Structures are given as structure tokens and as C-alpha cells.
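User: My advisor, Dr. K., asked me to get a structural model of this assembly before our group meeting. I'm new to this, so sorry if the format is off. These are the inputs:
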Amino acid sequence: MYMEAVNLTKKYGNFYALRDLNVKFEGAKCIGYLGPNGAGKTTTLKLFTNLLNPTSGEAIINGYNVKKELKKALKDVGTLIETPGFYSYLTPVELLNMLCEIRMANKCDVKNALEEVGMYEWKDKKVGKFSKGMKQRIAIAAALVTNPEILILDEPTTGMDPRGMAEIRQVIKNLKKDKRMILMSSHLLPEVTEVCDEVAMINRGKLLLYESIDKLNEKFRGNSVTVSAINEIDENKIMEIEGVKSVEKLSDRKVRIDFEDGAEMQYRLLSELIAMGIKVVDYRASGMALEKAYLQMIGGETNE
Amino acid sequence: MSDLKQMWIMTKYQFKNYMRAKRLYILLLITSLVIALIVSVNVYFGNPSDETVKKTASNFANFSEILVVLTALFFGGDAIAGEYQNKTGYFLLPNPIRRYVIYWGKYFASLLAGAVVLLLYLISGMLYTFYFHSTIPPEYLYSMLYSFVFLVSLLAFTYLFSTFFKNGAVALTIVAILYFFVFNIIDGVSQIASVEPWFSITYAAGIITLVFQGSYMGDYLHSQVIHAGKGLTITVYNPYLWEGVAIMLGYFIISAIIGTLIFQRKEMK
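Assistant: The format is fine. Below is the predicted structure of the whole assembly, which you can bring to the meeting.
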């Protein structure tokens, strides 16, 4: 299974929403699609789902051009783009059945899809009365109901409360176990780090980076840690550890330590802190690799 | 084959939505009230048994043109625009289903709903006429047929307008203004300008009632010049029966082609 953009371009007047995108997502994995507002994330996903017409180039799914061979291209693709509206007088069961029928799907499990997103008890209520978060859950169920091998999810946790977000992340993680490709756009870097295997970054319609999260961690590893202990920390003692560049005291029991780069050093530092009698209860890298990569590639800019 | 099956699925769910949204029932209620009004006024203020059978039947046919317009507005006005306004397009469009299948699936649902309403009305007219005259004039059957042709074409025309807009209310309002004012103004201006308004769908729909005129079907003047004083002449045009049908079919074909093409390319931005 794969999705490929070949010189994919979308232009509105003189503005390029997407410019010569060339990328191939392949295999069973979760790919986080990142970028600031207006970067071209949703435009890409809409081009792959026939909601927009490309100005030039091709969006290809499993070898089929989305524009020319729509039915074959989207045959095994589940989608969630923005927060879709629903026919308000239909119930979740009717909506999902409608989708199964339209998709002429062999696999259709309405009950399971609704249970996955925690909406089974609402199955016979009219969707018009649902909150935004509930509608988002139904939208995710709609993407899942035919058990597709490719899922295109545009900010799937939008409009949800923290508990709902955690539940949906868990749903996505579970979906990964079933050998599928998930392309998920998001603003939330921790969400992408938690859920995805690879990340693609885009800005101003151009692809800036496409890497595995592991490689990103290697490239953009943090070289500082924040340490909390249950006893007082002597920063002078820490400075004596080989490889430590500086120690900043945040409180009596909390310090930030900058050290020379390397995972080995990070591990050794923890061992030495414990060895010198510091009762470490929290030891964490300051800042995520993905955040660093994002800030380095895109900076703090937004395109809105 | 699968396109046809998907079209049927679209029709089924769209029709279900009309029923759930009570649109169909509301229009059936309005139609029932109109039927009750026509019957009670005619029975109370006249004696249908003393009228000719064509006169009795035409009392019902007169309103069917307006009923078709109402039906087209109720079921067609926001059919496509609503997908964009309510964002249901995000649910429906990213699926392995061609746009024209969605378009025509919805159209057939609207047509079916419209036909139910129109049938209720026209069959009531048949029963009413039969009750007083024990017969149904053939003109009434033709008028029924023309009403359905009008429904088919006006609905396609309404769908075309629905593809132009992304707001259902705007689409509905524009279409209502078009039918109730613009076309009537065009018809009126054409009379003064002595140009036959062969391009007007409401002009063509005149055959629904014209069929009752004269001693046989089609027995009426195609054009009639009336001197309105001070050198002003007005030409009253009446479409031939075949001409009315041709204009309506022309509207259907052109609207169907353009509407389908626009929806095919229309984007969910």
C-alpha cells in the first residue's frame, strides 16, 4: 500500500497552497503530517481524497490516480477531513450503513466502529443533537467502518476534550497493529511523537522533511535534562561530572543540566547523579526532538 | 452497474432524509390544504356539476404549475449547496463514488419526493372531476403529463442553481426569486417587445393549462396582438404544445449537462 504525490501542485490565483510536492508514503505505519496553519497540510489531504482538483501533478493511491481512477484509488481508504457535517436526521448506525453501502464494502462492522470510538450507546440517536466532540468521534468511526488499509486523518483530535483526545490516540495506536497506513495531520507535536512512526513536515506548500521519528530523535536529540530529586541538589558537585557543561538551579531540589551531546552521556549522567546520592524522582530531556526539528525547520511562523 | 447501484443508494438515503426532516410531510400537508381549499371554494361558490368537465378539471390544473415550483424549491434548492454549507460533503465526497452518481442519486430522490406530492394533488383532481362528471377528460391526463415534464425540467434547473452556490439558503432564495419574479418579468417584457419568450421555462409551462383551451387540444392562438392604446401593442404568446414540451426538455438537458459538469469540478475548499 502506498500514497504518492508527483509534482502535486495546488494554486489559487498567484498563491501556491501546495507546490511541486513529491513524496511517497509506503507501508503499514503511521505518518505524522506537520506544519503551521496554512502550510498546505489539509490541501494535500484534500487532493488525495478528491475534494480538490490539482492545478498540476498527480495524487496516486496504490497506483491509481485519484482524479482519473477515483473508485479504484479510494476503494480501500478511510478518510476524516476537517470536522465533517452529517445528515442531521440520520442516526450513527444509518450514517455508517450508508457509507458501507456507498463504498460497496466487503468488510463493514458498524458495531465495532462505534464501540472503538465510544459511541455505541448513541447508535440510534439522531446525529443533529450531538456535540462537536461526539460528531468527531462519529467521523472517526466513519473512517474506520469499512476497515480500510489506508486511513487519511486530518487533525483527528480536533474539538475533543483531553480525555477524548487520549482515547482517540489509543484508537489510532490500536489501528496501527492491524497493518495499515495512517497519514495523520496534526498541530500537536507530542501527539505525533506518541502515535506516529514517521513525520513529514511541510510549510508554504513545500515539503521540508520526511524522516522516521527514530532518526529525528538521533538528529535532534536534546542535550539538556531537567532533574528533580527528593533531597537537596548540590550543583557544584554536578559540575564536576565529566561532560557536564553547565548546571542551572531551578529550586533546591530541581536543576537543569546541559551536557555534551550524546545518548550515552545522558545515561551516564543519570547513573552518576544517583551514585552521588541524589535521590532522582524525575529525569527528563528538555524539549522533544520533534519540537526542535519543527522549530529549526519552520521556526515560530504561521502562514495565516 | 456499480454506478447505478450507488445511485440507488444515494436516492434511498436522500429520500429517507426528506422524510426524517419532515420536508415531504410539510409539503404534503400544504398540498392537502390547497386541495381542501379548491374543493370547498368551488363547491361552496359554484356548482361543479353544471360546469363542463374540462372547466372542472382545469380548476385543479391551474395550481399544479405553482405546486411544481414549490416542489422544486423544497427538494432541489439546497440539495447540492447544502453539501458545502453543512460540510456533509466532507462525509460524502471522499469516497469511491463518482460525483455524477451523487448528483443524480440526489436528483432522483428529489424527483421521487416531488412526484409523490404532485401525484397526491393531481389524483385528487381526478377524483374530484370524476365525482361530478363520472369521466376524466383526456386533456387532464395531458396536463398531468406536462406537469411531470415541468417537474423534471424545473428540478434539473434548480439543481443547476444549487451547484452555483455554497449556501443552501442563498441558492433557495435566488431560485425562488427567479421563478416567481424574473421569469414572469421576462414573459411580460417579451409581450411588450413582441418577442416570443421561447427561452423562458415558465412560458413553456403554460401548456399545463393551455391544453384545456379550445374545442380540441391545441385549439388556441399561438400569438395575439392586442392594441393597448397610444400606439402601444402587446403580443400575447402561447406556446404550442410540442413547443412547450421541447422548451422544458431543452431546459432539462442543458441544466443536466452543465450542473453535472460543475459538480464534477466543484471543490470542497
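One thing worth pointing out at the meeting: The two ends of chain A are 34 Å apart (CA to CA).

User: Perfect, thanks a lot.
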